[in-house]
């Protein structure tokens, strides 16, 4: 077990105490009728094994991206716990990472997890060169030897099929698909155990999409990290993932093998989702 | 009372107390920038008001004052600041680095080694070392709290990959006491190794930015450099000061119609070298 989410919830607004039970699956809305707070993620539990690839699907506003941000600690969690393999307290029991001091959360983000955002502007620093962006992640792991950092940057820059001569160019000189690939190189340069992908190919044309998905898949097979892929594109989910979870109004409504979910959906919303595929 | 009906050192006692407390906190947390209520001064902000406020708050009747600007005792700003401090305190003035107890400086450390008991007050334009990589002050504070200086290292990485070394000629980032990264004010690289383990108390004041920070005596100060790279200071080759003949000191470049000339940046050091040469010469 690499990652364990235990009853994770995120409420935007004041929690009236009944927000969680009055919203989510079956109520038809993520907005609490009593206090008006928005429940973006409602009591989601999930286990991710080493090397496993999990897809998250659902309509816009169903809480997919928020779920990733809760795992990556971009957003504070309202309720619940997150356990990460190897993070234990003094007596060796698994420790909730939400209770960790900021320096250890920073360590976790630098060493064990990486996030790839839909918009390269969030994942890359446009004031730094492509190589500088990759170096930032490597420096975050505590490496302080220039030669090692340079060689690792060049190595991962090569992995995303970019000519090494372009490593010192700035992100705005690259195309959208190339920027996304640089994000992948940056995310993988710390050799993380968990990669979080938030709509990694949305907004790219189909041929570039396919190449980036193939690249991600090849690198995953080579390096063996686990992935959580958020996408509203069932094609992406089908291509990449082993397991799929379906979200609706902040709740997890269906979870199972990707093939099974796409071929034989059980929940009415999943049936709608699969049948609406163009 | 002096001929002016002002309190000693221009400030009222409450103002001095506030600035002294900020200084004490700065000394207790080496390299940490402490906010303070920067006062209106008779000179404009950005012209040395930070250093001036520190000097005026810590100076006593027994002190002996030296003020330099880029190493020179005689430049207009140094003279004006010194005249002002003398007019509101009546303390003794000197150009001799070895005699001074309080030295206010802009962008240089005097060539003569400082001694225990001396105080070096720097005038600082930009106190926050992270300004170059993170404009948001709240984020800067978080980065300091987490000792997250990856972005500073990225600047160093980018310069090293494109130019072979950092391009920073002054304001080179340092790490104080193996903890906080700090802006050492725009001193040249030559002065960076001289911050380390210095017997004098080094205080930094930024009047416009309202920050005070400090390096206590004998504190470890290291420039930010990669583990497999060295730190290079300015290379003057085999040039010497054309006036006093000093070698191995920080030299000013002067461009004139007949070419480039090199002189000591520290004017008192240059004078003292000439004096020594004169005294050593056989008298007739």
Brief summary:
Chain A has 278 residues and is α/β, with parallel strands linked by helices. Chain A contains eleven helices and ten strands.
Q: What's the total count of β strands of chain B?
A: 12
List segments of chain B where confidence is low: pLDDT < 50 over at least 5 consecutive residues.
Answer: none
Overall structural class of chain B, as computed from helix and strand content, comes to alpha/beta
Low-confidence stretches of chain A: none
* Helical residue percent band of chain B: 25-40%
% residues in beta strands of chain A: 15-25%
Rg calculated over all Cα atoms of chain A:
19 Å
Strand content of chain B: 15-25%
Compressed to H and E, one letter per element, the order of chain A equals EHEEHEEHEHHHHEHEHEEHH
Number of strands of chain A: 10
What does this structure look like?
- The complex is a heterodimer of chains A (278) and B (284).
- Chain A starts with a strand and ends with a helix.
- The longest helix of chain A is centred in the last third of the chain and has 18 residues.
- Chain A has a 6-stranded mixed sheet, sandwiched between helices. In chain A, strands 2-1-4-5 form a 4-stranded antiparallel sheet, with helices on one face.
- Chain A contains 11 helices and 10 strands.
- In chain A, 45% of the residues are buried.
- In chain A, helix 6 crosses helix 7.
- Chain A is an alpha/beta fold and 278 residues long.
- By secondary structure, chain B is α/β, with parallel strands linked by helices.
- Chain B contains 7 helices and 12 strands.
- Chain B has a 7-stranded mixed sheet. In chain B, strands 7-6-10 form a 3-stranded antiparallel sheet.
- The longest helix of chain B has 16 residues.
- Chain B is globular and about 60 Å long.
- The model of chain B has no long low-confidence stretch (mean pLDDT 94).
- The chains are: A alpha/beta (278), B alpha/beta (284).
- At the A-B interface, helix 3, helix 5 and helix 6 of A face helix 5 of B.
């Amino acid at each position: 077990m690499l990652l364990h989410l235990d009853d994770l919830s995120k409420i935007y607004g004041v929690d009236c105490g009944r927000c969680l039970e009055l919203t989510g699956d079956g109520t038809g809305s993520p907005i609490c009728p009593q206090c008006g707070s928005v429940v973006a993620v409602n009591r989601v539990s999930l286990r991710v094994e080493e090397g496993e690839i999990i897809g998250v699907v659902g309509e816009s506003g169903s809480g997919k991206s928020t779920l990733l941000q809760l795992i990556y600690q971009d957003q504070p969690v309202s309720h619940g716990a997150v356990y990460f393999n190897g993070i234990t307290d003094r007596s060796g029991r698994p420790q909730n990472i939400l209770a960790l001091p900021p320096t250890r959360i920073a360590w976790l983000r630098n060493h064990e997890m990486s996030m790839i955002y839909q918009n390269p502007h969030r994942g890359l620093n446009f004031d730094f060169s492509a190589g500088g962006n990759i170096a930032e992640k490597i420096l975050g792991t505590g490496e302080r030897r220039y030669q090692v950092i340079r060689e690792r940057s060049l190595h991962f820059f090569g992995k995303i099929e970019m000519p090494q001569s372009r490593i010192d160019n700035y992100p705005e000189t690259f195309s959208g698909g190339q920027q996304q690939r640089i994000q992948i190189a940056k995310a993988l340069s710390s050799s993380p155990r968990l990669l979080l992908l938030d709509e990694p190919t949305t907004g790219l044309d189909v041929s570039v999409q396919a190449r980036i998905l193939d690249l991600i898949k090849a690198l995953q097979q080579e390096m063996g990290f686990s992935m959580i892929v958020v996408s509203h594109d069932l094609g992406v989910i089908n291509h990449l993932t082993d397991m799929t979870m379906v979200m609706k109004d902040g709740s997890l409504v269906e979870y199972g093998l990707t093939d099974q979910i796409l071929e034989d959906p059980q929940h009415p919303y999943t049936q709608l989702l699969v049948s609406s595929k163009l | 009372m002096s001929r002016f009906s002002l309190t000693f050192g221009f400030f009222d006692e409450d103002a001095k107390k506030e600035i002294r407390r900020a200084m004490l906190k700065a000394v207790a947390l080496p390299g940490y920038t402490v906010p303070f209520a920067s006062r209106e001064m008779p000179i404009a902000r950005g012209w040395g008001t930070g250093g001036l406020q520190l000097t005026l708050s810590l100076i006593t009747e027994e002190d002996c004052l030296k003020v330099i600007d880029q190493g020179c005792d005689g430049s207009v700003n140094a003279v004006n600041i010194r005249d002002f401090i003398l007019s509101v305190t009546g303390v003794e003035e000197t150009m001799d680095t070895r005699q001074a107890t309080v030295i206010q400086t802009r962008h240089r450390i005097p060539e003569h080694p400082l001694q225990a008991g001396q105080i070096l007050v720097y005038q600082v334009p930009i106190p926050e070392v992270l300004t170059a990589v993170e404009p948001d002050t709240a984020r800067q504070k978080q980065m300091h709290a987490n000792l997250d200086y990856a972005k500073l290292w990225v600047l160093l990485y980018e310069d090293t990959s494109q130019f072979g070394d950092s391009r920073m000629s002054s304001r080179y980032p340092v790490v104080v006491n193996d903890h906080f990264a700090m802006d050492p004010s725009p001193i040249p690289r030559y002065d960076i190794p001289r911050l380390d383990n210095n017997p004098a108390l080094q205080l930094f004041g930024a009047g416009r930015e309202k920050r005070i920070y400090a390096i206590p005596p004998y504190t470890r100060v290291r420039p930010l450099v990669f583990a497999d790279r060295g730190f290079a200071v300015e290379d003057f080759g085999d040039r010497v000061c054309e006036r006093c003949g000093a070698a191995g000191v920080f030299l000013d470049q002067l461009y004139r119609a007949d070419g480039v000339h090199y002189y000591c940046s520290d004017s008192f050091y240059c004078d003292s070298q000439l004096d020594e040469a004169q005294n050593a010469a056989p008298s007739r």
